[in-house]
Design a protein that fits this description.
Elements lengths: L4 H13 L3 H23 L2 H18 L9 H18 L1 H8 L1 H21 L1 E9 L9 E4 L12 E4 L2 E9 L4 E5 L6 E7 L3 E6 L7 E3 L12 E4 L11 E8 L2 E6 L8 E8 L2 H4 L1
Helix pairs in contact: 1-2, 2-3, 2-4, 3-4
Length: about 280
């Protein structure tokens, strides 16, 4: 006897409640088109509908324990989506986004800066927005509103205004997680200019990561800039990160981009060769 949609959903939901992200991604893939269509009929805006759909499934993940099966799963998801849409439309933030041109100018300026620098670096990138995330398994990570549906994959570097801020450590259908450079779990090989010294940039849970495995006689000068070395075979070499400086008896790196002040980023999908860029 063929299983009903509700029966198959129930099995997946139980897996999600046990932390199975694969089961959650399956549910997202299954219901995202219907959720997006419902939101678009409400907002009449592609961008608003995409953002609200993203927020909907974040809430589904966060509140899945509260689903008791009293209604069909999609009915429960639909209620979350429409409540978010209603709150968004009537909220003061919605009105401000429609009327406050200074907000739009700020966002456009940051976007233009990002695109200009990305063009110089000859990277193929996809732009994304930072989303609010209160349930991070890492001390310093953020969720963005793009995922496998935008060709994002694990390990991809993430830039803000052309400078490295982290890498992708988790990918879902419509969202991804960035592990920021200052997280305790972040360690990447770097090179220091102009000396050429190699080191490991390690997050220490504070705003400035530290440099480890440096030559014993190394002492930072005013012109010591830090770049990716590419020694890990994952991150491309030459992406700027920050400036080396001595602080609290440790050599740390003042990041060119403050990770607490970002809301637009670019995920590097691939590096364009010189021949392709011409």
């Amino acid at each position: 006897m063929k299983k009903s949609s509700n029966d198959s959903d129930s099995a997946l939901i139980e897996k999600v409640k046990n932390g199975n992200e694969g089961a959650f991604n399956f549910l997202v893939n299954k219901y995202y088109p219907r959720v997006y269509a419902s939101l678009f009929s409400f907002t009449k805006s592609k961008e608003d509908s995409e953002d609200l759909a993203q927020q909907t499934f974040i809430k589904v993940w966060q509140q899945i324990e509260s689903f008791r099966g009293d209604s069909a799963f999609f009915t429960w998801v639909y209620r979350i989506a429409i409540n978010l849409a209603k709150n968004y439309v009537v909220s003061s933030s919605y009105k401000k986004q429609k009327l406050n041109t200074s907000y739009l100018k700020t966002e456009n300026k940051q976007l233009q800066e990002t695109l200009q620098i990305d063009e110089k670096l000859a990277f193929t990138t996809v732009g994304a927005k930072i989303m609010l995330d209160k349930n991070s398994p890492y001390l310093n990570s953020v969720i963005i509103n793009k995922g496998s549906n935008s060709d994002i994959k694990l390990g991809m570097p993430v830039l803000s205004k052309g400078h490295l801020i982290g890498r992708i450590v988790e990918v879902n259908y419509i969202s991804s997680r960035i592990l920021l450079l200052n997280d305790l779990n972040s360690k990447i090989p770097v090179v220091i200019s102009p000396s050429g010294d190699q080191a490991i940039l390690s997050g220490i849970g504070k705003l400035k990561p530290s440099l480890e495995y440096l030559p014993e006689n190394f002492y930072p000068e005013d012109d010591n800039l830090v770049y990716t070395s590419g020694k890990d075979g994952v991150l491309v070499p030459g992406i700027s990160i920050g400036k080396a400086q001595m602080e609290d008896s440790r050599i740390k790196v003042k990041l060119f981009t403050d990770p607490t002040q970002i809301f637009l980023v670019n995920v590097v999908l691939e590096q364009v060769t010189d021949a392709e860029a011409m």
